[in-house]
Amino acid sequence: MTSPLLQVEHLHVHQGQQRVLHEVGLEVRPGELWCILGPNGAGKSTLLRACMGMARPSAGTVRIDGRDLAAIPRAELARVLAWVPQYVDTSMGFTGLELVLMGRSPYLGLWGLPSSGDLQKAREVMRELGIEYLASRSVMATSGGERRLLLLARALVQAPRLMLLDEPTAFLDLKHQVELLAHLRERVRGGMAAVVVLHDVNLALACADRVLLLKQGAVLAQGAAGEILREDLLRALFDVDMDRGVTNAGQVVFVPRTLR
Ligand SMILES: Nc1ncnc2c1ncn2[C@@H]1O[C@H](COP(=O)(O)OP(=O)(O)OP(=O)(O)O)[C@@H](O)[C@H]1O
Fold it and tell me: Where do the ABC transporter domain residues begin and end (predicted)?
């Protein structure tokens, strides 16, 4: 078995007096796509933030590629790990291409200027995601979904081995949601690892290898997606009765009972 790229052990995080994460453990290996599911306020974003050193553990360890996260210089970390946050600060008025090019900063030389190779990589990823048309547009003049795709492009040009994505499908229409996750799956098949916070159980079921269910800051269950995503655990997680069905194409789906 390959060694983990991300290893979280006995992680506790507090925000002031509030206990946000309690005794969380997680191991992510190359070629695995993990989905984190849980109710609002469960601690999903905090877990991602702790994995990249933006939320300080009150106890426990986070290791990236076998090394203690706190001991890895930021520039070095950025060559291994990329983050797709929930929001982008659009107040600074970058163009789409400039935002995407920021993903190349861990590789820039002495003067910090992107080379023609960096520009080519940025344009290539934008083309793959169908957002070339945003290259010279101000990020302030883009839609919520377009910003999401720009943030994904920025993370992809970073050429990370591990990607952490916080609700990347929020604001995206159905086609873009499916395309984004398919794109991510393809990268993961190529050996990258990804941890994705999602709210949609069916999208998680469609794309995840492994799933972690987080409730009130603690792990309710984790393991292979097909074993963990089942009615009893989903009910315990969301306090909503779910019915399991199978589509004509043989795909398992869950429907909240109150919506039937
Ligand atoms: N900076 C902070 N100061 C105080 N409390 C915080 C802070 N950041 C998060 N929290 C609290 O920690 C808890 C977990 O927040 P977090 O954002 O990790 O949840 P989440 O599972 O990502 O939620 P959502 O699905 O709503 O995005 C929440 O109760 C939140 O109010």
Answer: 6-241
